[in-house]
Amino acid sequence: DLTQNRRFTVSDTTKNYLASLGGEVRLVMAFLGTSDLHAEVKGLVSEYDRIGGDAVAAEYLDLSRSRSRLAELKDRYQLQFSGDQIVVFGESGRLKTIHAEELVNRDPNTGRVIEFKGEEVLTAAILEVTEQQQRKIYLISGDRRADELVPIAEQLQPLATAQNARLESLVLEGRDSIPEDADALFFPGNSEDLTEREMALVRDYWESRRGGLVIYLDPTAETPVLHAMLREHGIAPRPDRILSVISIPGVAARKTYDVPVALMPGAGPTRDLPALSTRLLGQTQSIEVLYEDDLLLSENIRPLPLMVAGTGFWGEIDFQAEEISYNPDIDHGQPNPVFTAASVEKGVPGGAGLSQGSSRLVVAGNPDLISPQGSSAKVAVDFTMASLNWVMNREELIGISPRRPTFFTLSIRPDKIAFLQSLLIMALPGAALILGGFVWMRRRA
């Protein structure tokens, strides 16, 4: 792909999903050859056709020339070809029509395309016609302020929509059960602990119904009921803060809580996200992961570390003190790794591995992987979506999420434009004329 911004290179998520398709999907692209989006969309559809192999078949029709074929499709499927569009056909007989303008965002003043979102729209349409129903993810409020929950939901919803999932809020207080359509529960840094009754609902949902849990812990919150459930399954949040001390000659040493972390390879949600790194902002607590505990393994419970802090950072117990230093007797760090996220997969007790189905959860020791300010790092967003897909048993959708190729315009003030025009029209030709005259005079002499 030699295009600007690698605009025809699809994401790992889409590649994994197309490779896992069980039935055939047909893509019919019906565009005018003169459309400003024709080349862009045809390049994308061709990539789906190539990557999907026998599972994806593409057909390209010109609205002004392929009239007999368009009439055949119109009569057979009651379609209306009134403009540029892609029609996605699933083996089950379901179809989805994507109009051309759904693939882009345009400047409202000039009509110029400023963002191409074709991959996420097309993948969402294929998921819609191949999956039996849309997945449902519930965001548990847990006393986190609405002004923080709204931007978290706004950042996740477009990615969830692109993967045929829907995000809704849920308050556990006063409920008798978790909704039947819940595929996953997401706790985004809740500052309020669960009551024993609410924990009973969550346990029943997770263990009996094989529902998925993604839990981002708030280190400043007192949540003993939630912590007890996690420790029972081999994940123990510690009462510390991961930090380091920055020392510069001539300047007083200071603490930093912004932790560089790396995702770890393995069989969990980071399986297709190895070697990626990001920075956790704010306060983060470390997590003890009992991944080699024989008792847990005998009960078919398998905790696994997912994220590790960078070199020079440790879990400090006395983090509120003015002056701190690493104490190997009480703090958590070198030579042992400091984990900031982990997963648990719980199978049937006494079962052979996890072949009979499993309950899955993911825990992170930082509440703001999805930033309430709306400025989340792409790696953190990919990790969150990979975790949600993994706990919902959608491994084929784990990977790096689609990019949206955008057009960049350099804005120049009018006075600067006038200066550039003067430079190009007068100064540069004048300089060339003066230099030419100087050379002429030297030769004459």
End-to-end distance: 58 Å
Structural class: alpha/beta
State the share of residues found in helices, binned by percent.
Answer: 25-40%
Mean model confidence by pLDDT: 87
Low-confidence region ranges: none
Q: Main beta sheet, described?
A: 9 strands, mixed
State Rg.
Answer: 28 Å
The SSE order reads: HEHEHEEEEHEHEEHEHEEEEEEHEEEEHH
Number of beta strands: 20
Number of helices, counting only DSSP H or I runs of 4 residues or more:
10
Which strand order do you get reading across the main beta sheet?
8-7-9-10-20-19-17-14-15
Sheet-strand content, in percent, reads 15-25%
* Morphology call: flat
Structure characterization notes:
With 445 residues, the protein is an alpha/beta fold. The chain has ten helices and 20 strands. The chain has helices at residues 12-19, 38-52, 67-77, 118-130, 146-162, 196-208, 224-232, 294-298, 378-391, 414-444, and strands at residues 25-31, 56-62, 85-89, 95-99, 104-106, 113-116, 135-140, 165-170, 184-188, 212-216, 235-237, 241-248, 251-256, 259-263, 277-280, 287-289, 301-309, 314-316, 339-347, 358-364. A nine-stranded mixed sheet has the order 8-7-9-10-20-19-17-14-15. Strands 2-1-3-4 form a four-stranded mixed sheet, with helices on both faces. Strand 1 (25-31), helix 2 (38-52) and strand 2 (56-62) form a beta-alpha-beta unit. The N and C termini lie far apart (58 Å). The mean pLDDT is 87.
